[in-house]
Amino acid sequence: VQLQASGGGLVQSGNSLRLSCAASGFTLDNLDIGWFRQAPGKEREGVACIDSSDGNTYYRESVKGRFIISRENDKNTVYLQMNSLKPEDTAKYYCAADPPSCRTFLTIPVGDYWGKGTQVTVSS
Length: 124
Hints:
By secondary structure, this protein is mainly β.
């Protein structure tokens, strides 16, 4: 059972990145999936979450209108499209599966499974 986040990199402010969260050993389509991030010296932040039952999506205020979470069940993958990136988005990004709920994930970003993150660095 493994989750792997990928797609990070170094970009200039205003550019875009798409992160992928791929699972092996289990299927994601019946699980809520969230993305959280953590910068050095800062607390973990819930960024976005997608509900498995109704497809509803949830975003922290600072990324609303810029980030889009989506899922592709036939690829067993969840994505985080990040547009108009800002230096304050710089962090290591992780995906987490099966949080207690998407509604609480943004404030308490935990899940039953998560893997190694992917670094996103946005230069000004």
